Amino acid sequence: MKSLLPHLYNGHNCFFITFRLADSLPQSVIAELKNKLQEEVKLIDEKDQIKKRIIIDELKIKHFKKYEHQLDSKPYGDCVLKNIEIAQILYDKILSYHGKYYKLHCFCIMPNHVHILLSILDDSEIVKLDKWLQLIKGGSAFLINKALNRTGKLWATESFDRYIRNEEHFYNSYNYTLNNPRLAKLSKIHLQKPFIWKADENE
């Protein structure tokens, strides 16, 4: 595989992003996971604020892995993204901003959540990462609800995003994204379009 590594050291411009359907986790599970994170943060006995922030970041990563385990191993809700027509709507929406607001490296659409690895095209636009995510979620929600003849909230408000620290982190995130359907034991159809996209095959 050719090198996909972007220029990582000119600011934090490469991100691994995860967002999920609003009905993908029971409220009791969400509350339990959040409470556990808050309890662990309270136990941090570190006066140096920089070191404390690093510890909190690591706890958030561990917290995310617990969310991910729930999403993959205990599917909940309608899982509308497993529908190939619905996945295609989201696939097209994510790609519609590729080369305009961000550069995609890969993404995968799971039955109840989505992983995207991307770089911001211009460092000055980094603060607008949330805006691009809102465009993806808002635009796809309208089209998906219309296709399903339904109304109401489609996406959970919160998302998880981490800037890519180095080459190892980049490739770990890249491989994790593309292997997630296999690790979750989904069918072979989830290993191809419109559930998977990667730059080295499409550009």
What does this structure look like?
There is one protein chain. This protein is an alpha+beta fold and 203 residues long. It folds into two domains: 148 residues, Alpha-Beta Plaits (2-Layer Sandwich); 52 residues. It is 47% helix and 18% strand. The chain is built from six helices and five strands; from the N terminus they run βαααββαβαβα. Strands 4-1-3-2-5 form a five-stranded antiparallel β-sheet, sandwiched between helices. A hairpin with a 3-residue loop joins β2 and β3. It is globular and about 50 Å long. The two termini are 13 Å apart. About 3% of the residues have low confidence.
Tell me the count of domains.
2
What structural category do the secondary elements indicate? alpha+beta
The termini sit apart by 13 Å
CATH architecture of the largest domain: 2-Layer Sandwich
Count the strands? 5
Q: Can you give the mean pLDDT? A: 82
Instruction: Give the fraction of residues assigned to helices.
Output: 40-55%
Task: Specify Rg, calculated over alpha carbons.
Answer: 17 Å
Cα shape: globular
The CATH topology name of the largest domain reads Alpha-Beta Plaits
N-to-C SSE series? Answer: EHHHEEHEHEH
The level 1 CATH classification of the largest domain is Alpha Beta
- Helix count equals 6
How would you characterize the largest beta sheet? 5 strands, antiparallel
Strands, helices and their partners?
Blueprint: E1 14-21, H1 27-42, H2 49-73, H3 84-96, E2 102-109, E3 113-120, H4 129-148, E4 155-163, H5 167-183, E5 196-198, H6 199-202
Antiparallel strand pairs: 1-3, 1-4, 2-3, 2-5
Helix pairs in contact: 1-2, 3-4
